[in-house]
């Protein structure tokens, strides 16, 4: 029984590690900008799909590349999701600061768009988006360089949009009629895809009768590196100092010459990149699908709230506790542990499924927040007032 309990704790810690990586980015974003980003789970999904694509490319190359693809996937997933986050902040979030409800609704809509994009994306859609972006944003760049068009700027922007959209739709129709299924077939579809871990991560070691898979040990090590990297960045770098200053007092930071808009953009990109890294870790635990992010976003928000908004230490503690509790309850380990106490064992057995375990953990969190509404490590001093 002790061996099974230790094995369950280890698996719970590995799941908590994934939650921690994702929650780090969410805690930074929510703590700095007060933005409730419901699309954070879809950024994790993009990171997982990036891992799948990099894996397939490296399999084609074979040999050395097939063994190290996970490291390439981590780097590319971080850069790719950080870029998506930067675009999201520039085009949507920037206009909704100070309005939490609007950011929640807007990012929820973005999350639905991202999910459907993954289900439907094909060469026609990809080429169309690329063409539209080049035409529309290129037209805006040209417009910004012409000061003599300021009076009719809104009309010109409308004309550029209509022309870009018309040319994009025409090009898409031509491609569909010419190449048909070769171009219109979805890249991923609605079905889940599998990511195979490198051969050196497919085994494990036995320690005290507990089997420790290398894949889960890799996730835990990755989490430690991410936490350490974020801590060093926030505490030792100049941009980290600016982020902490804006978190403490945005207005005063702006008065002192800190570019708060640039800080917001960098912070959102950093948080989004961490979500991509978390998605890469998720791909090692199971299959990847369009709804992958939805399976983790609620737990990630619970980690941020329970730990204390914007608090790194609280996020670490909350992620490990929630991840471990979910696995211990969902796997039935706690029910077996308390089998001598019949009523408690029956109650725990009722919740011994993945979905019901989330319900019980959520109820426990509600009770905890009644006692400490600001989380494990609440904000203090000027941070609360800012």
UniProtKB/TrEMBL annotation:
Family stated for the protein in its record: Belongs to the binding-protein-dependent transport system permease family. LivHM subfamily.
Membrane topology: Multi-pass membrane protein
Pfam families documented for this protein: BPD_transp_2
Organism lineage string: Bacteria, Bacillati, Cyanobacteriota, Cyanophyceae, Nostocales
Transmembrane intervals: 12-36, 68-88, 100-117, 123-143, 155-175, 214-234, 265-284, 296-313, 320-341, 347-369
Protein name: Urea ABC transporter permease subunit UrtB
Compartment annotation: Cell membrane
Organism: Anabaena azotica FACHB-119
Key words, A-Z: Amino-acid transport, Cell membrane, Membrane, Transmembrane, Transmembrane helix, Transport
